[in-house]
Amino acid sequence: MNVQNNMNSMQIEFCAENILESKYFYSLEDVQLCLDRGAIGAYGTIYNRIDPATVLSWFPLYDQQRQPYVDARRKAKQEANNIYDIFAHPQLAEALQQVSDKLLIKEEPVREIKRGKVSNFEQLMMDEYDELPLWGEDAAFRLYNNLPYQFTEYRKERVREEVEKQNEY
Q1: Per-residue pLDDT averaged across 6-29, rounded?
Q2: Average pLDDT of the residues in 110-138
Q3: For the segment 38-96, what is each residue's pLDDT rounded down to a tens digit?
Q4: How many CB atoms lie within 10 A of CB 142?
Q5: CA distance 88 to 103
Q6: Residue 114 pLDDT
Q7: What is the pLDDT of residue 101?
């Protein structure tokens, strides 16, 4: 700018620090635009001098001009980012419909299959297991060949033994 009283380096540094502290949310383009408008006299007449007070007085005036654009941009971004718009997408609507259909299906609870009469061999194993001594105080385990077995493991062991016995003959 062509003025008689320019700012010295200390004033420029003070002005820059003040802008950084108070207008940290401005982009470099915002700062440049504000300074350009101030330099051409958009924020008041420059009376042959430029100083930090003059430069810093331009920013509140720039804020007033900038705010409607910021508000409009924020509103447009919010409208473009409407979370409910995602539900209008055909693939998501179809997926949600499939989920709701599956939730409406009433399934009968799983029921235990009722067994018929047990075989003689099975009954023999159950009777043998009941006659085995308890392992400690736990009624779920019985001792067979000096090893603790629950009924399922005992049954597997006994079937294995019977199969081996049949293979011997």
Answers
A1: 89
A2: 85
A3: 888 898 887 777 888 888 999 999 999 999 999 999 998 887 777 777 777 888 888 88
A4: 21
A5: 21
A6: 78
A7: 86
Only one residue has tokens 């629950």, namely 150
Instruction: Return the DSSP state at 117.
Output: P
Written as one string, the DSSP assignment of 123-142 is: HHHHHHHHHSPEETTEEEEE
Handedness of CA 113, 118, 122, 126 (dihedral sign): positive
Cα–Cα distance measured from residue 50 to residue 1, given in angstroms and rounded to the nearest whole number: 9
Cα separation of 17 and 110, whole Å?
Answer: 74
Inter-axis angle of helices 151-168 and 120-131, to 10 degrees?
120
Q: Is the pLDDT of residue 15 over 70?
A: yes
Model-wide pTM > 0.85: no
User: Distance between CA atoms of 41 and 35, rounded to whole angstroms?
Assistant: 10
User: Could you tell me if 124 and 116 are in contact, meaning their C-beta atoms sit under 8 angstroms apart?
Assistant: no
| Structural Rg of the chain based on CA atoms | 44
The alpha helices in the chain, defined as continuous H runs, are: 9-22, 28-39, 52-80, 90-104, 120-131, 151-168
| Cα–Cα dist 97/83, whole Å | 18
For helices 28-39 and 52-80, the axis angle rounded to 10 degrees is 130
